Amino acid sequence: MPKSELVVPSAATPGASGCVVEVTPASAGWRYVGFQAYRLKPGERLESETGSDECCLVLLSGKADIRTSAQRWDDVGERMSVFEPKPPYSAYVPSGDRFGVEALTEVELAVCRAPGKGTYPARLIVPADVGVEIRGQGLTERIVRNILPEGEPADSLLVVEVYTPGGHWSSYPPHKHDEDRLPDESLLEETYYHRIEPAHGFAVQRVYTDDRSLDETITVRDGDVVLVPRGYHPVGAPAGYDVYYLNVMAGPVRTWKFHNDPDHEWIMQGWSRPVAAGGKNGGDSR
Ligand SMILES: O=C(O)C[C@@H](O)[C@H](O)C(=O)CO
Question: What start-end ranges are recorded for coiled-coil regions in this protein (predicted)?
Answer without folding.
Answer: none
